[in-house]
């Protein structure tokens, strides 16, 4: 069993908390990098949500190009 499988099993049933954690971590990274890597952070957040089964629309539009 891979580490990702273990994490998924542990987080099963806690999708709301997982999604909040992914958002909070992404916001912290954006703050520390002053938004320089916002596009990459958003992509990583989306991929994590897909991996953990919390890939519903968060209602936030993507940042405009060039930001």
Automatic annotation (TrEMBL):
<dbReference type="Pfam" id="PF14013">
    <property type="entry name" value="MT0933_antitox"/>
</dbReference>
<protein>
    <submittedName>
        <fullName>Kanamycin biosynthetic protein</fullName>
    </submittedName>
</protein>
<feature type="region of interest" description="Disordered">
    <location>
        <begin position="48"/>
        <end position="67"/>
    </location>
</feature>
<feature type="region of interest" description="Disordered">
    <location>
        <begin position="1"/>
        <end position="43"/>
    </location>
</feature>
<feature type="compositionally biased region" description="Basic and acidic residues">
    <location>
        <begin position="48"/>
        <end position="58"/>
    </location>
</feature>
<dbReference type="InterPro" id="IPR028037">
    <property type="entry name" value="Antitoxin_Rv0909/MT0933"/>
</dbReference>
<feature type="compositionally biased region" description="Basic and acidic residues">
    <location>
        <begin position="1"/>
        <end position="34"/>
    </location>
</feature>
